[in-house]
Design brief:
There is one protein chain. This protein has 20 helices and 15 strands. With about 625 residues, the chain is of the alpha/beta class. The chain has a seven-stranded mixed sheet with strand order 3-11-8-2-7-5-6, with helices on both faces. A two-stranded antiparallel ribbon has the order 1-13. Strands 4-12 form a two-stranded parallel sheet. Helix 2 packs antiparallel against helix 3 and helix 4 runs antiparallel to helix 6.
Length: about 625
């Protein structure tokens, strides 16, 4: 019996001394205080002194801080044993360095849309974004996890527990029941209602869903906001799946318009979707470096000097280029097909070729668009592997153009363009601007000391894009010959910040003017320019006006001679009826939709641009 008692005593936690209990609760209090720091950071000065960063988007609320403290206290009281509470909270402590890093660099807490970006990336792309600074932050996250486990192990060893009593009963029993039971009933009722909804009701509900529509004060809080953001992301994914199923069966009833050729001829139209290419780094737009020598020699090329993208991340920026979809504003999501469906209805064979990592596993808006193409191919289906260049798409272009039984073709080329790491986007022979950030070494997009080499590598990637696009142009001109017609429209998904102003990084995905001013230009074959002189004149006149992503849907159809009931000539650059945009809504990745011209300047870390961009000295 004595032996058994000794074994039981050895297996159970030893009783803590008074000093250990005081130290234990002090450490638990410090742990909880650290978890609350993002809420203090949102309150502004003086709490964000440790990570001054940039302007915080939105604002924190003092009552949200107390709500998060109360939730943590309820957890500790409910499980009673302090080590269990620390173990449950350890994932939030692990994420804390990443949350603070993101807040300090991007001016906003992490959000549900960011989870979508993460779900569509891979290790190579992630490391190019993180750089060495980001790796240090990941190391801090790992240390935070180890420290949490060590603290939990020590608290378990000394057996620190919340003492029984009225306070513990209220916080650990009655309050959780008061919150949990109504929440569980509400979720159950919601599931029952979903089961009885008709397909149309499900569609209406999906269309009305707005990511970030949960109470914003709690959504941006920490740590309670993390599970809310995850739930928000998956709710958005469910809504997208419902809309996608509906859109797949829809059509426009497209037909050829008066702008279409009178006699059947070979028609080849190409839409090149660039990546992270800012308009002011094109020589044809006044940039002092020779970054676009081929485009500078192209006849009839028209560049859109003031074109604004819908967002500064690919996932949100590309779908509005192909649809009438606006940035996610409640009530403005249009559940309808993309421009690819209209081309198909008008008799075109449609292709989507990409060097980017494939989209679709999370039903992103891009996958909804490319699913409507007749044929989809990816050079790198396994992800962003090095050694893949946009020129790898040219053999597929040649193969398609050689198909004589397809008189009408639309080819979409979704490229890697100038995405970080810039030096991986072009072959060595295109390293004209030196010294450039080396392709085989780690690059830190957060280090201002690397500004010159990053800038040179970026301009080299622009030079390669110039060559690639010129190769496609030559092929379209040759294929259509003297009888046919064709054109190439280039539009980058978004721009890129290169340590502009006080931004302090080379990246995108945050409120910075260069991130929303991508390169966009139109080039027609000689025959097309001759036959459509009126449209070309209208396009040139519109090119100097304010434009944005909304013009793409209507302009592409107009330029291809395709009519659809939803066509709006006031949004077509070639109609002669276009007027400068008065409101250009964008998604700045802050959880809200703002006007580019009126509201972005207050958040812009790049500051107002004076004249064309200048290369580093």
């Amino acid at each position: 019996m004595n032996k058994n008692n000794a074994q039981n005593a050895a297996a159970s936690p030893r009783l803590a001394s008074a000093a250990q209990r005081r130290l234990g609760w002090l450490l638990v209090g410090g742990f909880v205080a650290l978890l609350m720091y993002p809420n203090l950071y949102l309150l502004g000065e003086p709490w964000n002194w440790a990570l001054p960063g940039h302007k915080i988007i939105g604002s924190g609320r003092v009552h949200v801080l107390f709500v998060n403290l109360l939730l943590v206290a309820m957890l500790v009281a409910a499980v009673r044993r302090a080590w269990i509470a620390i173990a449950v909270l350890s994932p939030f402590m692990t994420l804390l360095p990443l949350e603070l890093f993101y807040m300090s660099q991007f001016g906003t807490p992490t959000h549900a849309a960011l989870l979508g970006v993460i779900s569509d990336t891979d290790r190579t792309e992630a490391m190019s974004w993180l750089g060495t600074t980001g790796v240090i932050v990941l190391g801090l996250a790992a240390l935070a996890l180890l420290a949490s486990w060590a603290l939990a192990a020590w608290l378990r060893r000394i057996g620190l527990c919340w003492p029984a009593g009225r306070v513990r009963t209220v916080l650990g029993v009655w309050l959780p029941l008061l919150v949990g039971v109504p929440l569980a009933v509400a979720l159950a009722v919601s599931e029952v209602r979903d089961a009885w909804r008709t397909d149309q009701q499900k569609l209406d509900r999906a269309v009305a869903y707005r990511m970030g529509g949960l109470p914003r004060a709690m959504l941006i809080s920490y740590p309670a906001g993390i599970p809310l953001r995850i739930a928000d992301f998956y709710a958005y994914q469910d809504a997208m799946r419902v809309i996608r199923q509906h859109v797949n069966g829809m059509g426009f009833g497209a037909r050829r318009s008066a702008q279409a050729p009178v006699q059947p001829v070979r028609e080849v139209y190409v839409l090149v979707v660039g990546e992270s290419l800012r308009a002011d780094h094109l020589q044809i737009n006044g940039y002092p470096r020779d970054t676009t020598p081929h485009l500078a020699q192209a006849s009839n090329l028209v560049s859109l000097r003031d074109f604004v993208s819908a967002a500064s991340v690919t996932r949100q920026a590309v779908p509005p280029l192909f649809t009438r979809r606006l940035p996610q504003v409640e009530g403005l999501f249009k559940p309808e097909p993309s421009v690819l469906k209209a081309f198909k209805e008008a008799g075109f064979k449609t292709y989507w070729f990409t060097t980017q990592a494939p989209f679709g596993k999370d039903d992103a808006g891009i996958s909804m668009v490319l699913a409507q193409a007749d044929e989809v191919r990816s050079v790198s289906p396994e992800g962003w592997r090095p050694g893949v260049y946009d020129g790898d798409l040219l053999p597929w272009v040649d193969e398609v153009l050689a198909r004589q039984d397809e008189p009408r073709q639309l080819i979409v080329l979704h490229t890697r363009g100038s995405h970080a790491q810039y030096s991986l986007r072009y072959p060595p022979e295109f390293e004209k601007f030196r010294p450039a950030a080396p392709a085989g070494e780690a690059v830190d997009p957060w280090d201002p000391a690397q500004l010159s080499t990053l800038h040179n590598a970026y301009d080299n990637s622009v030079l390669y894009t110039d060559w690639f696009v010129s190769q496609v142009m030559q092929r379209v001109e040759h294929t259509t010959g003297q009888a046919g017609q064709g054109w190439l429209m280039f539009v980058s998904d978004h721009g890129e910040t290169l340590f502009d102003g006080t931004c302090g990084r080379a990246s995108h995905g945050f409120p910075s003017r260069p991130n929303f001013l991508p390169a966009a230009f139109f080039w027609p074959t000689a025959n097309y320019a001759h036959r459509h002189d009126g449209q070309m004149q209208a396009l040139r006149a519109a090119s100097v006006l304010r434009t944005d992503y909304r013009v793409m849907f209507h302009s592409l159809l107009d330029l291809a001679g395709i009519a659809v009931p939803v066509y709006d000539p006031a949004l077509s650059l070639s109609s002669g009826l276009y007027r400068a945009a008065t409101e250009r809504l964008i998604d700045p990745s802050t959880g809200s939709i703002i006007d580019f011209d009126r509201e972005l300047p207050a958040l812009d870390c790049a500051g107002p641009q004076q004249g064309p961009a200048r290369p580093p000295h």
